[in-house]
Amino acid sequence: MARASSSSTSKSKRAPAKKPAAKKPAAKKPTNPAATDEDFELRSLHERFEKSKRFDASEEELLTFYEKMLLIRRFEEKAGQLYGLGLIGGFCHLYIGQEAVAVGLQSALEEGKDSVITGYRDHGHMLAYGIDPKIIMAELTGREAGISRGKGGSMHMFSTEHAFYGGHGIVGAQVPLGAGLAFAHQYNEDGGLCMAYFGDGAANQGQVYETFNMAALWNLPIIFVVENNQYAMGTSVKRSSAETEFYRRGTAFRIPGMDVNGMDVLEVHQAAKIAVEHVRGGNGPVLMELNTYRYRGHSMSDPAKYRTREEVQGVREKSDPIELAKAELIKLGVDEEKLKEIDKSIRSAVGEAAEFAESSPEPEPSELYTDVLVGDY
Amino acid sequence: MAIELKMPALSPTMEEGTLAKWMVKEGDTVSAGDVLAEIETDKATMEFESIDEGVVGKILVEEGAENVAVGTVIALLAGEDEDVSDVQASAPAKDEEPAAAEEAETQPAVAAAAEKPASKPRASDPEIPEGTNMANLTVREALRDAMAEEMRLDPRVFVMGEEVAEYQGAYKVTQGLLEEFGPKRVIDTPITEYGFAGIGTGAAMGGLRPVVEFMTFNFAMQAIDHLINSAAKTNYMSGGQMRCPVVFRGPNGAASRVGAQHSQNYAPWYASVPGLIVIAPYDSSDAKGLLKAAIRCEDPVIFLENELVYGNSFEVAQLDDHVLPIGKARIVREGADVTIVSYSIGVKFALEAAEKLAEEGIDAEVIDLRTLRPLDTETVLESLAKTNRVVVAEEGWPVCSIASEIISVCMEQGFDHLDAPVTRVCNEDVPLPYAANLEKLALIDAPRIVAAAKKVCYKD
Fold first, then answer.
1. What are the respective helix, strand and coil percentages of chain B, to the nearest 5?
2. How many CB atoms lie within 10 A of CB A352?
3. Among A312, A355, B352, B420, who pairs with B446 as Cys (CB 3.0-4.6 Å)?
4. Are strands B68-69 and B423-426 parallel, antiparallel or unpaired?
5. Partners of residue B3 on adjacent β-strands
6. What pLDDT does residue A5 have?
């Protein structure tokens, strides 16, 4: 009884001032007959996903995923090397181990129409969108040819052309900013959605929940993606989070969650398709948790003493997203020589990017004063 | 080609380190991810991992070696299809200069000094044609009209904040907007400043023109990260790609008897941040003309209003499009003996003081800064050259204030014209008390400005 009355209150509160709540697709029979409609709505996406978990990729599609993941891996390894040589300064957060997340998710978006925003571990998200590795690497080395003209660095990169909105250095700030982008999609009725990535660390920031509330209240077209790489810098999720199942954290705001293996690009892509369809259908936000793992330290200067080497090696050996895709390709009958060729050509593209990033000039001193303000006053 | 393994930089500040321990020996086969060595940096002991696959050919720096410069070749790795013995034979002499050091020497020691571009002459207020109808409007009405006019002109403009729609604004500044523009463009938010400041900023990055109201700027402290780190800096950090044409507006400064947490002037905070425009108008005409300019502006604007003047009426020219230039101060009263520089509600006290001073034979000029960033230092310095004496009146704390900034500009650029030390009249340097008598003692008023003006004129 108490339950029924509380759910009716929440329903009346939920009616947005702006427009009537979008019609939800007709609910199918809940698997648990005792479950209320509300419970079902919150789990419906995950249940759909559970039924068919892996994207049935063609050889060509899987090859594309593989190539993109491998490009990110090799790019990040090279970035690590250049950092070691002192060519990259400051903070540099590598994406190694997490490649399947950006590749699997963003391949389900319409590039240029949907917007993407993330935190400071941002190289992979740009490479997944096919942005030229040369100008990304040149930004890392702080050169004029860099994507932010050398003024942003590793953590602050953007490509408005690709609707990639950064690259934000303050943990969690990208979440409301992403909701703002989603707000603009809704306001302009352009059919786009925003994918806002954040980590398991950022998931404990208050502004994330302020954003969940407004995104659900206003039915914003946004996919919240928690990249749970298990460590917020040096603090494991168990030590930082009362609820470690991050996909459940939208429940209080009536945001359906999805729990996804972020080490399997086909599973990631399948989940993304379901989420995208839901959000594009005008059904409001989705919260996806992508369980993944970073092999390297939090940043280049992190000795990573908070976990054992065996733990890292274990993930590498058992669940590496690239090795998994590679094995699958071989099973599909792709020639190993062909994969070697791909690796070679990616290595050479990354080598060229590094060469470009090392040899292109630093910004002109006059760049110091440009882009502070747009207008003349 | 053998792969050279160089002493890595493992922190942003590391220049050299200790090669604590080799974890491999010559002849070992390594694959990517294997730990090759342990290296002590200035902060921690780090593991140095192999990126490539191959066979360790030659170790060039023995373990235990201290002060190994970043970039020194510490070992050679034979890659695929390479003979280890060749690698060992081709090892360079150990005393070879580290590559990074050579590179550093070829770089110019000091970057060429950049020439800061000279600022352009500032636009003056447009002439008001003769015969223009003047209407008496409260500041509150002027602000509302500015938003309504801009919303009619540009469908991208929308207003969001706490109680801005159905309640008609906590201070009734957004009165009538919901009725005219509907709930899509006039949006009540939950009480969630950090969140909606971020959403407003993101919407501006996405191409809209948000006007985000803070019920008061005291509450914007919950949201200040987005104003500074997200709104102000992103255009610069993106090399000019990311526009953020957002306006954050609301009352700022002391209200009346609301105590310390609700009574603070944030102008100096925001005015210190490159990438922001900061406007703090006093009268209705400037409130309207500058808010319209702020909404059209491509840059993020902090628009600081004052609750105590919302109900004050001033003349506003009834023009189709009353827009004023950002970055231009206004001489609100001409005078020859002393310059009183102020902004926002301080202008009210400055004008009262000028009347009092006139009675005593002192002819004061009053400058309303209007825009606090960029600051119109030219107008201040020209006036200083004329009167040779400056008092800054600011309803705010004295330390690191707008007054401090004006004083330093006068010292640096107007020293030869000064006949007396530049003086500031600010609030007392205490949190604002509640008790009526104490509150009055803490805030600036006209008599204190009069006293300061007389002092710099040596007539006290």
1. 30, 20, 45
2. 13
3. B352
4. unpaired
5. B77
6. 38
pLDDT in the model for residue B35: 85
CA-nearest of B4, B22, B21 to B77 is: B4
- pTM value is 0.89
Which chain A residues contact residue B122 at CB under 8 A?
Answer: 377
Angstrom distance (rounded) from CA A316 to CA A293: 9
Return the number of other C-beta atoms located less than 10 Å from residue B311's C-beta. 12
A149 contacts in chain B (CB < 8 Å): 239-240
Chain A residues in contact with B240 (beta carbon < 8 A): 149, 370-371, 374
Could you tell me the two tokens for A271? 């989940």
Dump pLDDT digits (tens) for A148-193. 999 999 999 999 999 999 999 999 999 999 999 999 999 999 999 9
Q: What is the mean pLDDT of chain A?
A: 90
Q: What size, in residues, is chain B?
A: 460
Q: Which of A114, A135, A177, A318 to mutate to test the interface with B (most CBs of B within 10 A)?
A: A177
Which positions of B are annotated as active-site residues? 193, 262
A169 min Cα distance to partner chain B (Å): 9
Contact B196 A160 (CB under 8 A): no
**Three-class SS state of A153:** coil
Chain A residues inside the 8 Å CB shell of B239: 146-152, 371
Confirm or reject contact between B297 and chain A (CB < 8 A).
yes
Place of tokens 């970035």: A79
Phi, psi at B399, each rounded to 5°: -80, 130
Buried b (16+ CB within 10 A) or exposed e, B163-173: bbbeebbbbbb
- Of A169 and B96, the one with more pLDDT: A169
CA–centroid distance for B320 within its chain? 32
Minimum-distance CB partner of B241 among A160, A182, A365:
A160
Can you give the length of chain A in residues? 377
How far CA A63 is from CA of A53, A180, A317, A318, B397, in Å, comes to 19, 35, 21, 21, 64
- Are B100 and A85 a contacting pair at CB < 8 A? yes
Burial of B15 by CB count in 10 Å (0-12 exposed, 13-18 middle, 19+ buried)?
middle
Tell me which chain B residue has its CA closest to the CA of residue A80.
Answer: B51
CB contact under 8 A, B196 and A210: yes
B43-89 tens-digit pLDDT: 788 888 887 788 998 899 999 999 999 888 999 988 766 666 665 65
